[in-house]
Amino acid sequence: MSNSDRLLLILHIGFAIFTLGPLTAATMSTPRYIRKQNAVVLRYLHRTSQIYGVGTLGIFLFGLFLAHGKFGKFWLSASMTLFVVALVLLLLVERDQRKAINLIDVAVAEATPVAPVAAVPVKEAEEGQAEAEEKDKAPKAASGQPERALDTSIAQVERGRIASMSGVVALIWLVILVLMVWNG
Question: Which residues of 123-162 are buried (b: 16+ CB within 10 A; e: fewer)?
Answer without folding.
Answer: eeeeeeeeeeeeeeeeeeeeeeeeeeeeeeebbeebbebb
